[in-house]
Amino acid sequence: MKKKVKRLGVVALAVVILAVLTGCGTQKVSASASKNQEVHVAVVLGAHLNSPCVNLKLIQDVIYQACYSQGSVILVVDDGEPYCTSINIPSQEKHLSKSKYEQIAKKQVKKLLKSASSMKSQNAEVDSLKSIQLAARGLNSVEQKGDTELVRKLIICDSLLSTTGVLSFVDYNLNTADAEDVTTQLKELDEIPQLDGISVTAYNVGDTAGQQKALPETSRKNLKAVWNSIFEAGNAKKVQFKDNLPLSSTYDKDSMPTVSPITVVQSSMEIHDTEDVNEAFADGGVLNFDETSIAFHEGTAELADEESASKALQYVTEYMNQYPDFKLVVCGTTACWGGETYCKKLSLERADVICELLAKEGIARSRIKSAGVGYSFADFYTYDQKPDGELDETIAKTNRSVKLVDWDSDTANKILNRVEEKKLWRCIL
Predict the structure, then answer these.
(1) Which CATH class is domain 265-427?
(2) Terminus of the chain with fewer CB atoms < 10 Å: N or C?
(3) Directed axis angle between helix 274-281 and helix 314-322, to 10°?
(4) What value does the mean pLDDT of the chain take?
(5) pLDDT tens for residues 136-158?
(6) Short-list 156, 192, 129, CA closest to 41
(7) Nearest to 256, CA basis, from 2, 61, 37, 16
């Protein structure tokens, strides 16, 4: 990841909504808060496009704790310009019985969840970091009363695939996300949320819907690692990621502001048949061939092992033979060494080599376009410079690669538009 950027890549939080909301009065809730505790909760809800509908049952118990202990609830709506609603819990007479406290708390929970279900995204895109910062600010404003134990909880119900703001995963390769690097940059920008004494629980991180292609497991793990690093840097008291299955329901695209899809890069190591290839290319997805499958010698377009490279391309070849109308863009990349012009030329030569391998297997060259982006395409590049400016070879070798995309996809258009100026692409008809 580059050191100077306007947007880093990372995540989105959000808003609300659940079309199906059951009455809390009939739901079993747990009171883990005592009269000696005052529980304050901030909930960041993802009610936006490209994310599954928020399951409000996930927050039912923690909202009950806040109501029972007469704390407070903050609902944060995550979109391009996140906003929040702060809800104070009415105080109750101290002489009331425990059962009466419970009865009143359940009624309050029902009202709060109904309010949450009506909230939704109002602005295009999602800015998760900003949403978390807003929620943390609300929790940090709470003051302790007497000897009562102050309990502060941040609950996140969202995919955390942010598309705008300081932390955005648009034009970023989640497969190579470096949590430490992202956190360091956020510290330099003074953008780490202040979470001292706040416990964090995040549900459904990496779950997708709508136009957002599903994340490979590598991307999902890296996404969690990035956010975990940010939470820990903010001195969160405790961090948990919950993998509850997402709801099958999705938001109506005609009633919600636009959210840009994140480019998904599928590793060739996860391809085992032509169906996997089809899935990788679906919805503008990218099939990645790194040094573990197709390796180039440093500074050259010479394959380290041509036989191994041909074997790695086996299922792609079979797929293209199975679907004769499918056309492919082969995009070459490089490490950040030797200057931009040199690297773009070298990356194009690497792409050409792979095109020739496919042609040897009977794929017509008219169905293959080669492109070279060097290290200038953020989706495909991992920052590979050491603090002293030297090349980090461990990372650099992962950048000496090729990516395959559907010729007719939006991703391919982005690539070709990036290289159009210098005509760093070839198509032999």
Answers:
(1) alpha beta
(2) C
(3) 80
(4) 84
(5) 999 999 987 777 899 999 999 99
(6) 156
(7) 16
- Only one residue has tokens 């969160």, namely 236
Each domain of the chain, given as residue ranges in start order, spans 24-242, 265-427
User: What's the rounded Cα separation, in Å, for the pair 48 and 12?
Assistant: 10
At residue 198, the pLDDT reads: 97
| Residue type (1 letter), 122 | Q
Task: Check: CB of residue 347 under 8 Å from CB of residue 330.
Answer: no
Burial class (CB in 10 A: 0-12, 13-18, 19+), 128: buried
d(CA 429, CA 426): 10
Instruction: Catalogue the E-assigned strands of 12-148.
Output: 37-45, 72-77, 83-88
The mean pLDDT value for 214-240 works out to: 93
CA 285/CA 80 separation, integer angstroms: 24
Least confident of 13-17, 79-83, 234-238, 396-400: 13-17
Contact status, residue 127 vs residue 12, Cβ threshold 8 Å:
yes
Among 12-21, 225-234, 275-284, the least confident range: 12-21
Give how far Cα 244 sits from Cα of 61, 159, 185, Å.
15, 12, 31
CB 178 within 8 A of CB 221: no
Residue 412 identity: A
Task: Give dist(CA 158, CA 132) in Å, integer.
Answer: 11
Residue 122, both tokens: 């109002």
Q: What's domain 24-242's architecture?
A: 3-Layer(aba) Sandwich (3.40)
CB neighbourhood size of 154 (10 A) = 28
Distance CA 178, CA 180 (A): 6
Q: What angle do CA 57, 60, 66 make, to 5 degrees?
A: 165
The reply to whether domains 24-242 and 265-427 share a CATH topology is no
The tokens for 115 are 């309010």
For residue range 259-310, what is the model confidence (pLDDT) as tens digits? 998 888 877 777 888 998 998 888 788 898 877 788 888 888 998 889 889 9
Contact residues for 387 (Cβ-Cβ < 8 A; gap 6+): none
